[in-house]
Amino acid sequence: MSIVKKRLDKKQTKAYIEKQKQEKLEKAEQERLLKEELEKNLKELTKDELKYLIQLIGRSEFLGKDLQLLYSITAKLQNQLNT
Questions:
Q1: Domain spans of the chain?
Q2: Between 20 and 30 A from 60 (CA), which of 4, 10, 42, 71?
Q3: Which residues contact 80 (CB under 8 A, 6 or more apart)?
Q4: CA atoms of 38 and 55, how far apart (whole Å)
């Protein structure tokens, strides 16, 4: 194998390794962003989910002992919906 060909092979190998490293970093970043989005979706309710809960609470009957806590929860849900 000629010296020129060896040098060319070495350059191509280095370029390939660098490309693989970059692709791995990009994939890791995409996975991190996806994980963040999934965690956010599990922690925060959508407007439709908030509306549904408020409507469900409004259609339900509760005992007197539950009313104060339920009022507080409903107020918080409505505040989240309005922000």
A1: 1-44, 45-83
A2: 42
A3: 45, 50
A4: 26
Of 65, 44, 45, residue with least CA distance to 56: 45
Is there a contact between 17 and 37 (Cβ–Cβ < 8 Å)? no
Counting every residue written for the chain, the total comes to: 83
Distances (CA, A) of 14 to 8, 18, 27, 59: 10, 6, 20, 67
**What is Dmax (Cα atoms) for the chain?**
91
d(CA 2, CA 9): 11
Task: List CB contacts of 12: < 8 A, sequence separation 6 or more.
Answer: none
**What are the structure tokens assigned to 83, written together?**
């922000």
Q: Cα 53 vs. chain centroid, distance in angstroms?
A: 22
The pLDDT tens digits of the residues spanning 15-25 come to 888 889 899 99
